[in-house]
Amino acid sequence: MDFSFTQEQRQLRQSVLDFAKSALNGDLAKRDQTREFPRDLWKQCAEFGILGLPIPSEWGGRGLDMVSVFYALEGLGYGCRDNGLVFSMHAHLWGVAMPLLLFGTPDQKKKYLPRLCNGTMIGSIAMAEPESGSDAFNLKTRAVKKGAAYVLNGSKTLITNAPVAGLYLVFAAVEPPGPVGVTAFLIERAAPGLTVGRTLETMGLRSSPLGELSFQDCEVPAQNLLGKAGDGPAIFTGAMELERCGIPASHVGAMERILERCVAYARERRQFGKTIGEFQAVSHKVAEMRIRLETSRLLVYRAAWLKSQGKHALLEASITKAHVGDAYIQTCLDAVQIFGGRGYLTESELERELRDAIPSRIYSGTSEIQKKIIAGWLGL
Ligand SMILES: Cc1cc2nc3c(=O)[nH]c(=O)nc-3n(C[C@H](O)[C@H](O)[C@H](O)COP(=O)(O)OP(=O)(O)OC[C@H]3O[C@@H](n4cnc5c(N)ncnc54)[C@H](O)[C@@H]3O)c2cc1C
What we know:
The chain is α+β, with helices and mostly antiparallel strands and 380 residues long. It has helices at residues 7-23, 28-34, 39-48, 66-79, 83-103, 106-118, 232-268, 280-308, 314-338, 340-344, 350-357, 367-377, and strands at 123-126, 142-146, 149-160, 167-175, 182-188, 194-199, 210-221, 225-226, 270-271, 274-275. The strands form 2 sheets. Strands 1, 2, 3, 4, 5, 6, 7 and 8 form an 8-stranded mixed beta sheet that branches.
């Protein structure tokens, strides 16, 4: 068993980290206040190649294996303190670009993948609805076949990138009900009958726009189906498998960045004539942060390795998602505690880190749902 990264992989991670650190953190606090999506930074990330890391070069990407991709995304999570921007990139990559690569026709790939990689088109995956979240496939949005097209009616909520996207991967239940079931459609923003609704106000990840969509007699040509009618569950499950280990890769980077800040502060801050790091109550918190960082990292790269070998990682993805979500939130909570009153101040950025971490137990399937999946693999 070889746990080392190659020289090229280390260079890639470092180059993404350096780029992110120098280019993506300006006006961060302002974006958190104004909830502004940084389109210019999105474009810069595209130019750097981040939006096409796993997409083959013939479609405008860098064609990297999953271990390299995840390692680069760890560097992104470390270097970019705008966790919202990082989150939006993950939704775009795992929710739209990869499903297109895996299930798209050559025409669909040619039409959309280069634009998704070069930053001119933002992707958004739309499954959740007002009445179906965890019970993801129990959709009210309906698609009725009409000649060579499908007519969609329904609504979606809690959709990352919805307010800014140009391409939506939308899931709907095909009518009449029968063996066909949930189906995936590629729908452009300008499609008649699609309305991009309000932008939702959130606790954290505020530079990542979250919104609503509604469909009123939205006619979608049959060539815009991704895969075949009824392939929706397989497409969504594949997207979630990657997203549930891909997003944690960036959390690992963020956890390392936060840990380093805590170590530096514990060495420098003095109380009772000693550095606070000399108090076991503080040093053990830091040690636990390191344990969580390492266990999270191992889980992320085991899943990445499985995917790079072309193997399934459904169980591993759920374990990674559940563990890293908890680890990330606890790390942020501990960081606020170690910094004391300063940690509570907005200027410390730690309260924002905590707000940004909280939804990691909710998106891509809640922690409860990951545990349900894990228990299912154990026959329960
Ligand atoms: C920041 C963010 C970004 C998101 N981005 C997207 C996106 O891009 N596209 C998209 O389609 N969706 C997106 N979502 C929606 C997300 O997938 C749902 O919020 C999530 O699946 C939970 O669904 P829900 O909110 O309806 O909660 P519910 O399903 O109503 O769950 C409420 C509570 O009940 C628990 N629960 C439900 N069922 C069970 C069960 N069987 N066993 C045990 N506990 C259960 C849940 O764990 C939760 O604690 C996003 C959500 C967030 C917070």
